[in-house]
Design a protein that fits this description.
The protein has 153 residues and is α/β, with parallel strands linked by helices. It has a single domain (8-149), classed as Aldolase class I (TIM Barrel, Alpha-Beta Barrel), CATH 3.20.20.70. Helices cover 31% and strands 14% of the residues. It is built from five helices and four strands. It has helices at residues 44-55, 76-89, 108-116, 129-132, 141-149, and strands at residues 8-11, 61-66, 94-101, 120-123. It has a four-stranded parallel sheet with strand order 1-2-3-4, with no helix packed on it. Strand 3, helix 3 and strand 4 form a beta-alpha-beta unit. Helix 1 (44-55) runs parallel beside helix 2 and helix 3 packs parallel to helix 5 (141-149). The longest helix is centred in the middle third of the chain and has 14 residues, at 76-89. Residues 139-144 have low confidence and may be disordered.
Length: 153
């Protein structure tokens, strides 16, 4: 039997950790699974091992989906490192990145990074306006969307 080359992976670098406390979240009690740390985070060592394993094998394209909890809790330097590792070990391979976020931490730096490295962004929206804006930070989303779509840097 021939082994299938892995070309898609879903990564939860911040585990179930989130910067919201939604009553309905299926991750609500998941931090209890990590009593020793409370806030699991993917190490730079593990990031490098994972990226090497997915981008080094032969094949044309690789897709990495970043999810959570809230993946932006890892911070922008984490994703800069991820892209640098993809480029270093990918040997010209096409690597697509997607990130699902609630958008609260997105600012101009994040938006420019996403545009520069062509991240596909999924923005979690909780429903109609009266539900979506129960969390005050959600209102700021309208300010960074033009940054991601602008032709200027």
């Amino acid at each position: 039997m021939t082994a299938k080359v892995l070309n898609n992976i879903l990564v939860k670098p911040a585990g179930p950790d989130c910067n919201l406390d939604c009553l309905y979240c299926f991750y609500k009690n998941k931090p209890e699974l990590f009593p020793e740390t409370g806030r699991p985070r993917m190490s730079e060592f593990l990031l490098e091992v994972m990226i090497r394993q997915i981008v080094e094998p032969p094949g044309g394209e690789v897709s990495i989906g970043w999810q959570g909890g809230e993946p932006t809790l890892m911070g922008l330097p984490f994703y800069r490192k991820a892209v640098e590792l993809e480029e270093r070990f990918g040997a010209g391979k096409i690597v697509g990145n997607g990130l699902q976020t609630n958008g609260l931490l997105i600012d101009r730096q994040w938006a420019r990074f996403f545009r520069e490295f062509r991240f596909l962004i999924g923005l979690s929206i909780d429903g109609p306006e009266h539900v979506q804006f129960l969390h005050p930070g959600r209102v700021k989303l309208v300010f960074w969307v033009p940054e991601m779509t602008s032709a200027e840097t």
